[in-house]
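Before relying on records like the one below, remember that each one covers exactly one chain. Contacts with other chains, cofactors or solvent are not represented anywhere in the record.
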Amino acid sequence: MTEQTDRLIIAITEPPQPPPRTPRTLYPAPGMEYPFSIGDIAYATARLLGRDWCAEAGHWGITGSLWGPYTASFTLLIDIDGDLCMTWDRSEADEWPDTPQLPSGFQEFSAGTFLPGACVTDGLDHLAEQLAAAVRAITGT
């Protein structure tokens, strides 16, 4: 038998083996598992809120800050349960509504509000639209 025939017999009679695992096959490439950060959500939300609004990403993009024509500012973060949260430091000088009518899906907690069903597959634009609507409700604009 020839060497080529021997390889063919082995290929037919032995089950295929998976390729060896290397660090490249164990982990997703950077930026592939999560296509945007919390900081990116803050920037997109500020753009939707208008020219008077600014945003900044926290360290490593795991938080985001929003501020606008008010004394108070907002912080976006993910809590220990994986929920997208928005907190703020309320100021009496801002004269915001006492009981804002939050958009559907938002829930309140002691430090602010959160979206329990939000996830990265919702997309950056959709999440920013939801948060911009919540900021408008909270600020009364």
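The chain is about 30% helix and 20% strand.
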